[in-house]
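so i finally got all the pieces together for this one. its two components total, 613 residues if u count the protein bits. some of the lines might not be protein, just check the labels. i wanna see the whole assembly predicted at once instead of chain by chain like last time, that was a mess tbh
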Amino acid sequence: MDLICVKMVAPFELRSISTDGEIAIPAGTSLLKMLLMTGAPLYALAMPVVVNGKQESKSYCLQDGDIVVFVMPFSGG
Amino acid sequence: MTVFFIKGIVSQPVYVHVHNGKVEILPAEDLWGKDTIDTEDTLIQRHGTRARVACIGPAGENLVRYAGISNHHGRMAGRSGLGAVMGSKKLKALVLEGKNKVEIHDRATIQYWSKATSKLMPRGKSSIPGWVLLLMGRIMNLLPINIRIDGLMSLPPFGEWGTNSTNELSVVSGDAPVRNWRGNPAMYPTKNVGVNRISTYQRKKYHCTACPLGCGSVMEISGRYKETHRAEYETVTAFGSNLLNQDLDSIFDMNEYCNRMGLDSISTGSVIGFAMDCYEQGLLPENLTAGLLLEWGNQETISKLVEMITYRQGLGDLLAEGVYRAAKVLGDQAQKYAIHSGGQELPMHDPRMDPVYGVIYLADPTPGRHTITNTMEYEMFNLWTRVSWAPKPAPQYPKREKYENSQENAAKNAAGAMYKAILDCAGLCLFGAHIGVDRSGIFEMLNAATGLELTPDEYMRTGQRVQDLRQWFNIRHGVEPDQVVINALVRGQPPAVKGPARGLSYDLDGMRRKYWQAMGWNEMDGHPLEQPGLWI
């Protein structure tokens, strides 16, 4: 099975993820499937996600080298 | 880098024109009285489109103590009354022209980091609904834990709506002051200041020079002005929840008016909130109010007061002095409504929700600043990836830890302040720094730009020395750090009885002592332990 490596920037802990946020998953894995595989909390499914800076749905098929970021508002300015 | 020192006062208005290093002082009688945008347009017409202008408006001319300096058609260096300093010298503007190239030691490294940073920026229009941001804010509010936010997470909404992405969230979370800091979120429905509503005004977005994020925007407005820069969160809150004003047209109109007059919108909104509280408590003499109804949310009164402040008319003359001095005139009872630190009106972030703001408001050489450091920004900076001594926060930790007077918290605050001093000296954007020092390569770029070979720890030492100098500057001018006073309300004294800040208080004096210690200053009086020496 071919593996790809993606980087996760998330406000919660995930299983099987390295200290710098990288995870190896089978090629063809969707974002949703990866969240379920890594034990993400349920609320993560409702959070907006950007992949490589572009907003994507949870059905997005992850590619090698993708940077997946969960969107969180910050209070500042 | 070129620095200008302008000494003395002239009798007639002038502006300084610098062309390829040649400095001339030119008459400005024809500019005196013009607003900042007219002034900039006139000077650019006179000197050409390559000229860049920093100028004051009528507020600076009239020595309003919180007048700022404007550039780029109303972008303000707003705080601490530097516009009044220019006004006192009769200096209307500074005009810069030049064709000299900026020398770079190692262009390839700069380009590498620039490209790496650009790749991380959000692309395309964000379709995140405003209610999602609000819901997430509410959830974060309810959680007993603090989640360490990675700066990348906040980029999409920030790129789309700038600081306005937090307008609603900040009210419901208790970060934004309501009703001159004595209200609570239940008093202020936020729908009118949310991103969905803000978006209906948006005409075009813009980037500051070379910025890959581009959080700026021009808003189309109705009334006396056709457009304005998108009001920042600070302005929306100072003229919105702080005054119980829900009318976005009025807020944007005030934004443009303050920009044109050269007023700090934070202090202006704050001083009006102070006046409304005093009016409600019967502390304003009738001869001062002259029939004006200073009721919360009254847009006509707000508009009139800003004009009176600009031209120092009637009550405006008193309010132009700022809340600290105005309260002294009105008597002891007015003091508790004067929300300031060391005479500087406080920004729109409540330290009861993040005590780091309290420490910085009280202990920084420029009191009352929200742009030095705070819990969330420190966590975004990722300094621990580069700086040997910068503490690494846990991904999640109990919220109460923020309120602890610990060495670790003090070290984070000191690191944040030193890093911010570096950003300021390098002319870098605080918001851009949110992506983290490891991803932005700021230390590497500084070495590449200058040819220096400093380590991150050495850069932080430079930041510390900058803070030392700022502290010594105050001391030399008779401003003793331990004499700076902050309004007790923001310490949680007395504790709030309603809202997110209910019951919250913290040991601000103790936290200040530890912060000073972490900065390498005497923990009792705030004097830097190292004398200024040769580098002053």
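Chain A has one domain: 3-70.
The helical segments of chain A are 31-37.
anyway lmk what u think
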